[in-house]
TrEMBL record:
Transmembrane domains' residue ranges: 12-42, 48-73
Organism: Dermatophagoides pteronyssinus
Keywords of this entry: Membrane, Mitochondrion, Transmembrane, Transmembrane helix
Origin: domain of life: Eukaryota
Entry protein name: NADH dehydrogenase subunit 4L
Length: 90
């Protein structure tokens, strides 16, 4: 039953990624997917080393999502400043 739920979760995860336009929603979904896979492995009694590996992946994805968010925020701010200054020139 848990495997069926995992397959269903993967399917909805794929649908939400394919229809997602916001990168932050995509990264949050990836974080939840990693967390769910970790909980699934703990439920199936996998070793703790595999669990620690998934925690490491989750931490790396969290750091990556923060970097992407900061990059997008800076690029939006700089493009807004650039467009504002160009409007003043014309």
């Amino acid at each position: 039953m848990m495997s069926g739920f995992l397959i269903l979760f993967l399917f909805y995860f794929y649908l939400s990624i394919s229809s997602s336009t916001n990168i932050l929603i995509l990264l949050i979904l990836v974080e939840f997917m990693i967390l769910f896979c970790f909980m699934h492995m703990v439920f199936l009694s996998f070793s703790y080393i595999v669990g620690l590996f998934f925690i490491l992946i989750g931490v790396c994805m969290g750091a990556y999502s923060i970097c992407v968010f900061i990059f997008l925020y800076r690029s939006k701010s700089s493009s807004y400043i650039l467009s504002s200054s160009l409007e003043l020139l014309y």
